[in-house]
Amino acid sequence: MAKRKDARVTVILECTGCIRDGVKKVSTGISRYISQKNRHNTPNRLELRKFCPYCYKHTIHGEIKK
């Protein structure tokens, strides 16, 4: 059976602040969140303000490819 294209897809959101700053030497990684979006309502890449434990503040998390 062929898999149909669902409207809801799972996306990974990654901190844009950590990527630009090159992640501080003290931190251990880059903040990532998993979320869902409706492909029909938001065809563009998703960007949400989330808390980054490595930057210690709320930053913009953008959608990345899997």
UniProtKB/TrEMBL annotation:
Keyword tags: Chloroplast, Plastid, Ribonucleoprotein, Ribosomal protein
InterPro entries in the cross-refs: Ribosomal_bL33, Ribosomal_bL33_CS, Ribosomal_bL33_sf, Ribosomal_zn-bd
Name of one Pfam family that matches: Ribosomal_L33
One BP term from GO: translation
GO MF terms, alphabetically ordered: structural constituent of ribosome
GO CC terms of this entry: chloroplast; ribonucleoprotein complex; ribosome
Compartments it resides in: Plastid, Chloroplast
Similarity section: Belongs to the bacterial ribosomal protein bL33 family.
Protein name: Large ribosomal subunit protein bL33c
Gene: rpl33
